[in-house]
Amino acid sequence: MTETSADVTWLTQEAYDRLKAELDHLAGVGRTEIAKKIEAAREEGDLRENGGYHAAKEEQGKQEARIRQLTQLLERATVGERPADDGVVEQGMVVKAEVAGEPMTFLLGSREVSDDSLDVYSEKSPLGAAIVGLKVGDSSEYTAPTGKQVPVKILDAKPYNG
């Protein structure tokens, strides 16, 4: 089942499990490993000119940011089956559309679900918000950051199988 609320991210069970495993690793073993790197670098002496210490601290900051991102994502995620193959555009659908006269194929949803073979647009993006709920053959438009109105026609919408 798919949620379309602005605060909910749809994930497949496989994507949820993968992201949960990444979070568990980063919050457990990952934190221990980075703490050891920082401690080892600290023992090298003067911290003002200690490149290893600063690199480890920067890595720690990135890791903590990823932990926060994953925690928030998983707390708000709706885990479920793929959307129905009914041609209605919603999260978790691969959409083929004509955007400003150009054909595009993309996943509507979270980058965390995609396998990098597709471009991903959030349902919260101007394009995504303009097409959620449309069916094959429907048209809409959205306002680009430049202020220009961009026409969109839905050519196909199938559940993502990645």
Give a written overview of the molecule.
- Pfam families: GreA_GreB, GreA_GreB_N.
- With 162 residues, the protein is α/β, with parallel strands linked by helices.
- A 5-stranded mixed sheet has the order 5-4-3-7-6. A two-stranded parallel ribbon has the order 1-2.
- It starts with 8 loop residues before the first strand and ends with a strand.
- The N terminus is likely disordered.
* Radius of gyration using CA atoms only: 21 Å
Order of helices and strands: EHHEEEEHEE
Query: Hey, roughly how much beta strand do the residues contain?
Result: 15-25%
Biggest sheet strand order reads 5-4-3-7-6
- Percent helix: 25-40%
Distance between the termini: 17 Å
| pLDDT averaged over residues | 89
Oligomeric description of these chains? single chain
User: Uncertain spans, ≥5 residues at pLDDT below 50?
Assistant: 1-5
How would a crystallographer describe the biggest sheet?
5 strands, mixed
**Strand count:** 7
Helix count, DSSP H or I runs of 4 or more residues: 3
Shape: elongated
